[in-house]
Amino acid sequence: MIDSFTLSTGFGAWNAVFWVIAFLIAFIIGWLIWSRGEKTYDTSTSATASFLSGNAEPEKEAVHIRAGNLYWGYTDALSGYYRFIKPLHTGNLSDYFLAYLFVTALVLIVVVVLK
Amino acid sequence: MSSLLVTIAGVILVTIFGIIAGLFLMGVDRICAARMQMRQGPPLIQPFIDIRKLLSKDSQVPANAIPSLFNAAPIVAFASAVTVLFYLPLGSILPVGTPLPMVGEYGDLILIMYLLTVPALAMVAGGFASGSPYASVGAQREMVTMIAYEFPLAIAIIAIAWRLAVAGLVMPFSVNTLAANPIWTVVGPIGIIGCILLLIVLAWVTPAELSRIPCDTPEAETELCGGLLVEYSGRNLALFSLSMAAKLVAMAGLAVLLFLPWNISPLIGISGIGAAGADLVFFLLKVIVVMFFSVTLVRVVMARFRINTVVSLYWGWLTTIGLIGMFLIILDGSMSLGGCLS
Question: How confident is the model at residue B177 (pLDDT cuts 50, 70, 90)?
Fold first, then answer.
């Protein structure tokens, strides 16, 4: 029955219905293990405060990771690339079309050379 | 209807196997690491004891947390990590669903690649739901780490599948195709060099997938006090530990599938259930070897990378090595076709 939902591309296959069933079963098993654990906990203020190595908790705004910093490690590691790519993003639509044409021409040349 | 019941039974059995094998592997990992550091190390069953102890401890929910997301994340991480195992062959035991008729399987390598990201995403969601600065930084690092290692992993998988397609095999992304046609028997000398490079890439992706040293920046005990897991305790932490155990089996199983898919039963000439058992034991031995070289050895001899170093390593060095490996495999495939590059 499940087999009729399998999508095959000729290179690979996947069956979303099986995945949903399998995930649900695994989820239930996980939930059963989880529900066997200790349910109660100390609800006093000191126990439920965030752990900050004994320091007082700062204001939310002070410790919130802003969207611009979310990928810090990534942007910092590729800073050389971003230094090159940022000036190209001028906001001018003509520049984007020019870049698109250039890349398309490059891809076509590579395809012709390979063929 | 009976095929559905067989599938459900298979899913339950594989889940149990994933838990036991994963915790067993973590025990082996800890013993090997201890012996390399001239320590006795914990008993093999220590991870099982740890889980039992965690389940008996209080599971604190921080006042700042979003309780529903905070509690759901460990269960989703566990379920998604275990789900990957349903698509991998365990020795000669084919993935759940095969050998039923029709296409014969329910998922391929592309699906496995995507599913491997789900436990990490659940951990990120749990980290952000903790309402802790340490956990937020850890979750942010986990996302960056994920972006870093996905590209080299994709290169390794696609290069191998492409070479199988050039060899005339149908369904090159199928795990059954990979299991039946080891890549080493398909490629020529140049392709073997390419495969060795891709093997190195996959070996380095494994510690990043598992957030192990030197890529444990999302947890970083000494600076983030556990990072995205800092607020987790009790049964929630137990579920995260189980998900890491299952993911360890999945990642090592993926490496075995791609590069060491041979079984031992044809060599010793047995068949039936005995062959399945012997192949399963042989599979676990291969998984231990993979884990030793890509996780245990690496975490003992190295220190933690900074998060920007992780990105530089994976997007710089490992992507370059992967692309060279892929180029050699393309060259090998082209030569086998009579040189379409010429």
Answer: confident
Pairwise CB contact (< 8 Å): B96 & A22: yes
pTM for the whole thing?
0.86
**DSSP helix/strand/coil, B217:** coil
- Asked whether residue B95 is domain-assigned, the answer is yes
When divided into structural domains, chain B yields a total of 1
Structure tokens at B156: 């390794």
Parent domain of B7 = 2-336
- The position carrying tokens 């659940």 is B122
Name the amino acid, one letter, at B130.
S
Whether B342 is covered by a domain: the verdict is no
Is residue B341 a part of any domain in this protein?
Answer: no
% of chain B surpassing 90 pLDDT: 43
In the predicted model, what is the mean pLDDT of residues A21-37? Answer: 92
- pLDDT band at B100; cut points 50, 70, 90: very low
Among residues A9, A12, A11, the alpha carbon closest in space to that of B166 is found at: A11
User: Quick check: is B49 in a domain?
Assistant: yes
The Cα–Cα gap between B228 and B124 comes to 7
Under an 8 A CB cutoff, do A13 and B105 touch? Answer: yes
In three-state secondary structure terms, B228 is helix
Residues 26-45 of B with CB under 8 A from A: none
Q: Where are the domains of chain A?
A: 1-37
